[in-house]
Each structure stands twice: as C-alpha cells, then as structure tokens.
C-alpha cells in the first residue's frame, strides 16, 4: 500500500469512526430523561468526580473550553447544590470547585440511564461484536486523552 493509499485509508477510517461516535452520542443524549443535565454540566461533574477538586481554569482546560464559556455552568451547578466553591488555600484569589454528594448522585443517575440504553442496544450484538466495542471504547479513551492532539491546529482548545 502506498503512502497516498494509506493516508486515504486513514481518512476514510477516521470519518467512519467520527460518524459512528457522533450518531451514537446523539442516540445516548436522546435516551436521557427530559430536563437532564447538559453535556457541559455532565463534563464538569464527571471531571470533578474522576479527578477531585479543581479551579475553573483547570476544568476549562480539561474540557477544552475557555473559563468564560463555563462561568454560567459553574454558577448553575453551584446554585443546584451539585458543586461547591471554596477559596484556594494556595492562591486566595482563586476558587476551587468540588463535586457534592448531590452532584455525585446526579452524575450517577445520568450515567445509569445512558448505560442502560447502551446495554440494551448491545444485547443484540454477538459476543465478539461486544468485545470489539469494548476495545474501541478503550482506544477512543486513549485518543481523547492524547495531549499531542488537544484540539484544533496549534493545540488550542476548542470552544465547544
């Protein structure tokens, strides 16, 4: 296979994966209850749950967004009692955000809804297909966490 063919094959494969991820993401969002938390709110809660307390800037960087883009999200989560905001001991000018027990419960409910839908959908697949999906999930996690490809060209985070 020539370098040109390999490059075209990679692009075709990337397009197929992107399309599948996009469609599956839409289906998972559609399976959520009315009034469920937004993707941004779930992203913030998920990060705080997995990594512990963080500043607004740290959260924005982890979610590939600008801190200003998440200001309203932080305020709404705090008002709903899903996160708390405390002064940073290292730098009193900053606040540190942390997930509350109510935030953990809300995140768990949302994940359970989506997991139940996906498990039901996967039940129609063969064992081999389910194993391939598990492997694909692990590979996508690895790609999503790869700092050498953090966003748009130039390594700057995206706004969405």
Account of the protein in words:
It is a single chain. The protein is mostly helical and 160 residues long. Helices cover 63% and strands 8% of the residues. The chain has six helices and three strands. The protein has helices at residues 3-30, 39-51, 56-62, 67-79, 101-122, 127-144, and strands spanning 54-55, 83-87, 95-99. It has a three-stranded antiparallel β-sheet. A hairpin with a 7-residue loop joins β2 and β3. The chain starts with a helix and ends in a 16-residue tail after the last helix.
Provide tags for this entry.
160 residues; mainly alpha; three-stranded antiparallel β-sheet; 6 helices; 3 strands; 63% helix; globular; disordered C terminus
Can you summarize the main beta sheet? 3 strands, antiparallel
Return the average pLDDT rounded to an integer: 87
Over all CA atoms, what is the radius of gyration? 19 Å
Strand percent estimate: 5-15%
**Which stretches of 5+ consecutive residues score pLDDT under 50?**
150-160
Set out the fold topology.
Elements: H1 3-30, H2 39-51, E1 54-55, H3 56-62, H4 67-79, E2 83-87, E3 95-99, H5 101-122, H6 127-144
Antiparallel strand pairs: 1-3, 2-3
Helix pairs in contact: 2-5, 3-4
Short characterization:
By secondary structure, the chain is mainly alpha-helical. Helices cover 63% and strands 8% of the residues.
């Amino acid at each position: 296979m020539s370098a040109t063919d390999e490059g075209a094959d990679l692009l075709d494969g990337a397009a197929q994966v992107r399309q599948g991820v996009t469609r599956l993401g839409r289906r998972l969002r559609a399976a959520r209850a009315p009034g469920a938390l937004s993707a941004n709110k779930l992203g913030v809660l998920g990060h705080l749950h997995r990594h512990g307390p963080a500043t607004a800037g740290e959260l924005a960087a982890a979610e590939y967004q600008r801190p200003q883009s998440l200001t309203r999200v932080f305020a709404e989560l705090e008002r709903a009692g899903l996160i708390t905001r405390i002064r940073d001991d290292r730098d009193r000018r900053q606040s540190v955000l942390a997930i509350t027990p109510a935030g953990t419960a809300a995140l768990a409910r949302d994940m359970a809804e989506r997991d139940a839908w996906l498990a039901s959908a996967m039940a129609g697949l063969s064992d081999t297909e389910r194993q391939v999906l598990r492997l694909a999930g692990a590979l996508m996690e690895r790609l999503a966490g790869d700092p050498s490809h953090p966003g748009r060209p130039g390594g700057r985070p995206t706004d969405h």
